[in-house]
Design a protein that fits this description.
about 400 residues, alpha/beta, Aspartate Aminotransferase, domain 1, Aspartate Aminotransferase, domain 2, 2 domains, seven-stranded mixed β-sheet, four-stranded mixed β-sheet, 14 helices, 14 strands, binds pyridoxal-5'-phosphate
Length: about 400
């Protein structure tokens, strides 16, 4: 196994902890060490590990068959939920991963417009297929491969990169190349170089420009969907894209991807239209059981408490940065946060890349020693869940205080 892992984001030196079990916000490794988890499977586990309602739903579904290769009522229930909550969703296609969903959303945008050009943000991450492995964040940046080898130039020549939070760059690109572009794909809150929220007016500007130039706007809400609100970032921030991609939380811990949009666009997807998508496991009953159970719990209204936990963590860290007199930026939104080391402003990819990555990895290990598991990269986002209690957050802040002293001496 290259690097000993099944996905590069999990790798770190000298070798990653192997996990034996997890419950709530706690992980236990194979040596019996316990950790409070802020990786949370890189985002899906908004209710924590092994939430009883999710486990029961999965158990029940397993006993009734795991895969039918035929439509199910659960698919309709999931599609209805998505349409109810996500402002841009009128029609839905369920797939298996965020990677698949962005790939199909891009194909649909190209099929619809007859154009090949795609705009993405520097540091945006939309999975690991050819069109989006250009200046990609997440593990691609952590492991120094933001522009992956093996992607044909005939693909990358259609991909245009702009810095996040820079409306001037988007304006001049759309003015010069607007008629070659099928879509802008972006995370509304950049999440894969750490969380970077939009500047005031930025998303409004992107929406205005894409409409003006007749370019589709795709929000990749694989991280933010159902996390920042039931309707994701678009609902919380009040900007409605043309198409939306979901994943992570929607599958409640099992694999899922979703792309959705207006009926006239989505009806171009096969078998109604001529844009092809297919998958043996698409819309599989197990993922839907876990996803629907997760949405049932969230619909009872957990976002306000998640928000309060995010605020408590960010406020505690900000006080600490002040008290210690170190250069660092605490940033995030809702239940997402990161502590960027060595910079006091992080509004785009280049600024994130200027952070003190080596010191961050020392912090990561110092936190692990103190029983806290962070995602192993400066370029990831820490996730809170409904399972994180007040004492867990207090313990984590204490661990940060002593770990930061250790790595800044
Ligand atoms: C914003 C975003 N889009 C797409 C993906 C890809 O999703 P998956 O890992 O399910 O393929 C990710 C994964 O982290 C993501 O963060």
């Amino acid at each position: 196994m290259p690097g000993g892992v099944s996905s590069p984001v999990r790798a770190y030196a000298p070798y990653p902890a192997f996990i034996a079990s997890a419950q709530g916000c706690h992980l236990t490794d194979v040596d019996g060490n316990g950790y409070i988890d802020y990786c949370m499977g890189f985002g899906p586990l908004i209710l924590g590990h092994a939430h009883p309602e999710v486990v029961e739903a999965v158990r029940q579904q397993a006993g009734q068959g795991m895969l039918y290769g035929a439509p199910t009522e659960q698919e309709v229930m999931m599609a209805e939920r998505i349409v109810r909550h996500v402002p841009s969703a009128e029609m839905v296609r369920l797939v298996n991963t965020g990677t698949e969903a962005t790939m199909h959303a891009i194909r649909l945008a190209r099929g619809h417009t007859g154009r090949d050009g795609i705009v993405k943000m520097a540091g945006g991450f939309h999975g690991a297929h050819d069109s989006v492995l250009v200046k990609a964040g997440s593990g691609a940046t952590t492991h120094s491969a933001p522009d992956s080898l093996g992607v044909p130039r005939s693909v990358t020549e259609h991909i245009h990169i702009v810095p996040y939070n820079d409306l001037d760059a988007m304006t001049s690109l759309l003015e010069s190349k607007g008629d070659e572009l099928a879509a802008v794909i972006m995370e509304p809150v950049l999440g894969n170089v750490g969380p970077i929220p939009p500047r005031n007016g930025y998303l409004e500007g992107i929406r205005r420009l894409t409409r003006q130039h007749d370019v589709l706007l795709i929000f990749d809400e694989v991280i933010t969907g159902f996390r920042l609100s039931m309707g994701g970032a678009q609902s919380r921030l009040g900007i409605v894209p043309d198409m939306t991609v979901l994943g992570k939380v929607a599958g409640g811990g099992l694999p899922i991807g979703v792309f959705c949009g207006p009926k006239d666009l989505m009806e171009q997807v096969s078998p109604v239209g001529k844009v092809y998508q297919a998958g043996t496991f698409s819309g599989n009953p197990m993922s839907l059981a876990a996803g629907l159970a997760t949405l049932d719990v969230l619909e009872r209204g957990d976002h306000a408490t998640l928000e309060a936990k995010g605020d408590a963590m960010r406020a505690g860290l900000e006080d600490m940065v002040q008290d210690l007199g170190i250069v660092a930026k605490v940033q995030g939104i809702g239940s997402m946060y990161q502590l960027f080391l060595g910079r006091d402003l992080v509004e785009n990819y280049d600024q994130a890349r200027g952070c003190d990555v080596a010191r961050f990895m020392r912090l990561f290990h110092a936190m692990a020693k103190r029983g806290v598991h962070l995602p192993p990269s400066q370029f990831e986002t820490n996730f809170l869940s409904t399972a994180h209690g007040e004492e867990d957050i207090e313990h984590t802040l204490d661990a940060y205080a002593s770990a930061l002293r250790e790595v800044f001496v």
